[in-house]
Fold this protein.
Amino acid sequence: MSGVRLQDSKLVSFMSYVKLIVLTLLSSLIMTSCKHENLEHTEKLFVNGAIYTANAKQQVVTAIGVTSDRLTYVGDTEGALQLADEDTEIIDLHGSMIIPGLHDVHIHLPGIVESDNCDLESLPFSLDNMVPRLKQCINRLELPDGEWLTVEQWAFSYGNEPSNAFPTMREALDSVSLTHPIVLLGNDGHHGAVNSFAMGLATDSNGINVGLNKATLNKEFAKFKTLIGTDKDGKPNGMINEDARKIVNLPNLWGYPELDLQVYQRIGKRLASSGITSTMDAALRIDDINNFAKWAKQSPLTYRLTAAFYPEFEDYRAGLGKPINIAALITDLRDVQVAHKDVANLKIDTAKIFIDGVLEGDPYAFPPTLPNAASLTNYLQPIFRSGTESQTIKVINYVDTKSDLCLKIQQQKFQNFSEKDFLAEHGFVSSQCLESKGVLEKEYDFIYNYTLALYEAGINVHSHAVGDRGVRVALDTFDAAKKASPASDAKFSIAHAQIIHPEDISRIADLKVAMAFTYSWIEPTTEYQMMVSPFIEPILSEDDLYDPRGYVYKNSYPAASVFKAGGILVAGSDAPVEERDPRPMLNLEKAVTRQNEVIGRTYNSDERISVRDALDAYTIKGAEMLGQATLTGSLEVGKKADFVIIDQDLLQLEATDNSHKISNTKILATWFDGKEIYSSGDNQAIKTTPSESPL
């Protein structure tokens, strides 16, 4: 038994009495919601464990006490046992670890539930292997001709290798069916792929069906050219990303199931089994929020839900080309706040803004599709070599966009030429002479004015920013909002921040921006990195991807740099991106190790953080971002009894150089509001009374 031993029995009795008096006073002040009438009685004691409190001192204790929904004791096991009476339930942890309930501050809740639709489960498929899998889906679902085949959890960044039979995604999906429109929904919510039938459904800005083809891509859909892949003949190759997906009138842009009662309850179960007791759904429509509120009244939430308001912005334009009505947006947000203000554990105090898109380009397109995340510098124009005989993508050269030839193309002084002859002579197509720094999801003026209006109204701003320019735009607008409304107490946060320019690190700290990194993404594979790095800096070999001098290598997810500068680290899984499972233990591991066991590399070890700091990101710092740190996020007397029992001591793993085993950690039990809402069945903790206790 750990803790200080008091030898004098009278002193023990006196100290116990003092502790109980203090406890009673604290309880009368803090535990106003506690239903138990006798606050001197401790209902449950969890003892003999490794308990990380996530308090200001990052302390570890061996015992906690719970009465009703609150923590009534945090300290050593010896002191805990002095509070026990004949009715106290004692749970012997036998060395198991307790951590505060986890806070996933960027997640998409309906998407974490498996569906009965066609689901690729984020597994990599070559085009050859994908075709029979999708045909099986059509047969299983018994889809009549003309009905959409919606394919969920497509791994856009892994697999998809072409073959002699299927040189493009369009040809592969056409082989699956020409009598059904088919869409693959990327597991990131940004990528998609369609067959020819679906392309034929494309409508222009006036709602007229014109179809997506080579001619309309260069006319009606010209503004989407950077978002639509093409083949060597200039025809759409099936890849269709971001807002370009809307032109084919998809039945469901993200593929999430309808939030009925069953889906709602399954969400709660998945979160509980993951040890997650607080979340922010990072993009909810008004209808989604209304549904959560409706079901929460029928079946109370078993987690604290912050809903980030994310409407269909185009609904707030008075007409084509008209500005978005920001005042109407805020009015609707206020209305939904008022409508659901009494729903327990539901908060609606945040708005989501997409600054930019994603940082992946498409090496299989011709020419390669550039990333659309906002970049501070022009993206490079790599020339890739990929063949049907080899599944390896290599960069064989780069287009010199500053050459005389390219300058003529850019200035439109090189006209009336054959693209086929141009390719034969130069080895690339003329469009690769053009330069791009990516795009902003909405007009800069809207991003700026919406941010300022939200902050002035006291509404938290949560920005999706991936590229270094995207991050800078977010910071610029945050800075402007603070200066315009210095009295506001609203908070700022950024999700993802895949690339951060070093000059912006200190600004993150100065502006008190919470950085919601998805730490599991720090373990890139070579296949994935070839979709990113070659567009940002010259990459001619695999070793170049891991050059410590490289811009991407140095500035990808710079968690330690943000932390050392005084910035706030929080954690968001972004599930179902990559996986439906939020995988908090994997995220914790990658924050600490930044290792990829598959390729045997560590991605910028200088940006590793400690287990304690990673746990704080997932607990108390997340609670602070969500405005509930006085209630939960750490294990302290008076706070809610939200905690998780796990089978490994994460601090001990770190101390013994075994941090790479953190992801193997099992959630044994999850407690929320003083109740056990999940038990794995593997929990070996022994429940005893004081007289039975072996301690």
